[in-house]
């Protein structure tokens, strides 16, 4: 837990450097990640809706507001 507190207290530029270092270590292992079937099913369904012309899209500002509303 103390490492978390230490990271939390770092300046933003140091946190970003740590995130980049973590990502550089994770990205090459992407092929080892197992995507759950429910996730693949959801993506397939969304792709089909787009192909069928039934997908509805909203702008990013509206999406952000909906997310904020949903979690508050």
Task: List its salient traits.
72 residues, mainly alpha, 2 domains, 4 helices, 68% helix, 0% strand, extended
Quick summary:
The protein is mostly helical. It contains 4 helices and no strands. It starts with a helix and ends with a helix.
Architecture overview:
With 72 residues, the chain is mainly α. It folds into 2 domains: 1-33; 35-72, no CATH class. 68% of the residues lie in helices and 0% in strands. The chain is built from 4 helices and no strands. It has helices at residues 2-8, 12-26, 37-51, 60-71. The relative contact order is 0.05.
Note the beta-strand portion: under 5%
Number of strands: 0
Taking the alpha carbons of the first and last residues, their distance comes to 27 Å
Query: What about the largest sheet?
Result: none
Please, what is the average pLDDT?
94
Coarse shape: extended
Radius of gyration: 19 Å
> How many separate domains?
2
What is the N-to-C order of secondary-structure elements (H for helix, E for strand)?
HHHH
- Give helix % range: 55-70%
Sequence stretches where pLDDT stays below 50 over 5 or more residues: none
What is the structural class?
mainly alpha
């Amino acid at each position: 837990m103390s490492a978390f507190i230490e990271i939390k207290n770092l300046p933003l530029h140091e946190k970003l450097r740590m995130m980049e270092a973590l990502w550089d270590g994770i990205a090459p292992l992407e092929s080892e990640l197992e995507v759950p079937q429910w996730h693949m099913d959801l993506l397939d369904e969304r792709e089909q809706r787009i192909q069928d012309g039934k997908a509805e899209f909203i702008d990013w500002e509206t999406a952000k507001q909906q997310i904020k509303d949903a979690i508050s």
